[in-house]
Design goal:
This protein has 12 helices and 13 strands. By secondary structure, it is an alpha/beta fold. The strands form 4 sheets. It has a 6-stranded parallel beta sheet with strand order 2-1-3-4-8-12, sandwiched between helices. A 3-stranded antiparallel beta sheet has the order 6-5-7. The longest helix has 22 residues. The structure holds NADP nicotinamide-adenine-dinucleotide phosphate (NAP).
C-alpha cells in the first residue's frame, strides 16, 4: 500500500487521480485524521500500517501566493522544513522509502555564456540575456541537481517560502531512502486558481520572465514512474525540458483561448516589487536531464503547454 500525505492539496489531488487511474492501492491521509506532523503519531501510524512507499505532497504554500508565507512564518517553517525532517526520520527508523515534493523555487536565474565562459545570471530581465535567449538558446543552461540552491537562507535574498523549501531539502538529504522531486510552477488543462495558465489570465498585470515549468500530470507521472521503475533515490528536477518566457505563454493563451481582455506587463522589476509583490520571486531555468538519463521522459514544455491549452477545461 502507498501512503499519500497532503492528498487534499493541489498536487496531492493529482497524485490521487493518477494512483486511481493506475489501479494502485493507496491511502490518502489527512492531518484531520492523523496528525502526521507529530513524530510519535506518525511513527505509530506507519508502524501499524506499514506502507511500501510514502508520497509527501504536504507542505505550506501560502494562498493565494508565496507573499502569504511572509506573514505566516511559523506555519511555513513547520510545513516545509520541520515536517519533512520528522517524516524523514520516521521513515528511516522504519526503513520505509518515500518521495518528497520539493520545489525549483530554491534557484534564481540560469547559467549563461555571454562570451567568456559559463556564469550564473540571476537577473534574466536584462536585455542582453533576452537577446541570447532569442538568438542563441544553446548559450543558456539550467541548474542541475549537483548545484547548490542560490535562492535560499544561505544565499539571500530569497522569499521565506523558498528559504524553508531549501532548508527542507537539507534536513532530509542522506536520511534514509528518498526521492526529492522538484516541482516548478504547475500548470495543466484544468482552469484552477493554482494553475499557472489560469493565474496569467487573472493577473491585473503580467510579470515577464523566463522559467521552467511542470505540467501537473506529467510531474505526477514522472514521480510515480521513478518509484515503480526503481530509479535510484536522490534529487530530481521534475520539470518539462526547456523553458519559456511569460510573454510566450501569454501569446499561446491569446492564440488558443482568445480571452477578451487586454494584457499589460509590469514595466520593470522596480514597479513589480513596489506595487505587485511582497516577497522576492524566484524565476529560474532548470536542467531536467538527470531524470531523462534515469529513463523518465517528460514532454518538452512548449508541447505540454500547447496540449494543455488545446484541451482547456473551464
Ligand atoms: N503549487 C505550487 O505552485 C508548488 C510549486 C512547487 C512546489 N510545490 C510544493 O508542492 C507541495 C504541495 O503543494 P500544493 O500546491 O498541493 O499545496 P496545497 O494545495 O496547499 O496542499 C498542501 C497540503 O499539505 C497539507 N498541509 C498544509 N499545511 C501543512 C503544514 N503546515 N504541515 C503539514 N502539512 C500541511 C494539507 O493537507 P492535509 O491537511 O489534508 O493533511 C494541504 O492540503 C508543497 O510541498 C509545495 O511546497 C507547490
Amino acid at each position: 500500500m502507498i501512503l499519500l500525505l497532503g492528498a487534499t492539496g493541489y498536487i496531492g489531488q493529482a497524485f490521487q487521480t493518477e494512483l486511481t487511474c493506475r489501479g494502485e492501492r493507496f491511502v490518502a491521509l489527512s492531518r484531520s485524521q492523523v496528525d502526521y506532523t507529530k513524530f510519535q503519531s506518525l511513527y505509530d501510524y506507519l508502524k501499524s500500517s506499514r506502507p511500501s512507499f510514502i508520497i509527501n505532497a504536504a507542505g505550506y504554500t501560502g494562498k493565494p501566493n508565496v507573499d502569504a508565507c511572509e506573514s505566516a512564518k511559523a506555519d511555513t517553517l513547520q510545513g516545509n522544513t520541520l515536517f519533512p525532517q520528522v517524516l524523514a526520520n520516521a521513515c528511516a527508523a522504519l526503513e520505509i522509502p518515500w518521495g518528497h515534493v520539493s520545489s525549483g523555487c530554491i534557484f534564481a536565474g540560469a547559467w549563461i555564456d555571454y562570451g567568456n565562459g559559463w556564469v550564473v545570471e540571476k537577473d534574466m530581465t536584462k536585455p542582453e540575456f533576452r537577446a541570447i535567449a532569442k538568438d542563441s538558446p544553446e548559450k543558456i543552461r539550467g541548474f542541475d541537481e549537483t548545484m547548490t540552491p542560490n535562492f535560499s537562507f544561505r544565499d539571500e535574498p530569497c522569499s521565506f517560502y523558498s528559504g524553508t523549501k531549501a532548508l527542507g531539502e537539507e534536513a532530509i538529504q542522506d536520511v534514509g531512502h528518498s526521492y526529492i522531486w522538484r516541482l516548478r510552477i504547475p500548470f495543466d488543462e484544468f482552469d484552477n486558481p493554482r494553475n499557472y495558465l489560469t493565474k496569467i489570465q487573472r493577473y491585473a498585470k503580467v510579470y515577464n520572465n523566463f522559467n521552467s515549468l511542470s505540467h501537473r500530470g506529467d510531474f505526477v507521472n514522472a514521480c510515480l514512474d521513478s518509484w515503480f521503475q526503481k530509479v535510484p533515490f536522490g534529487t530530481y528536477n521534475v520539470t518539462n525540458p526547456g523553458y519559456v518566457s511569460t510573454a510566450e505563454v501569454l501569446e499561446m493563451i491569446m492564440e488558443t483561448l482568445k480571452p477578451e481582455r487586454e494584457f499589460e506587463f509590469w514595466k520593470s522589476d522596480v514597479e513589480f516589487y513596489t506595487t505587485g509583490a511582497v516577497a522576492a520571486r524566484s524565476n529560474c531555468i532548470m536542467d531536467s536531464s538527470k531524470l531523462l538519463k534515469a529513463g523518465i521522459q517528460m514532454p518538452i514544455v512548449h508541447h505540454s503547454l500547447k496540449t494543455a491549452l488545446s484541451k482547456w477545461i473551464l
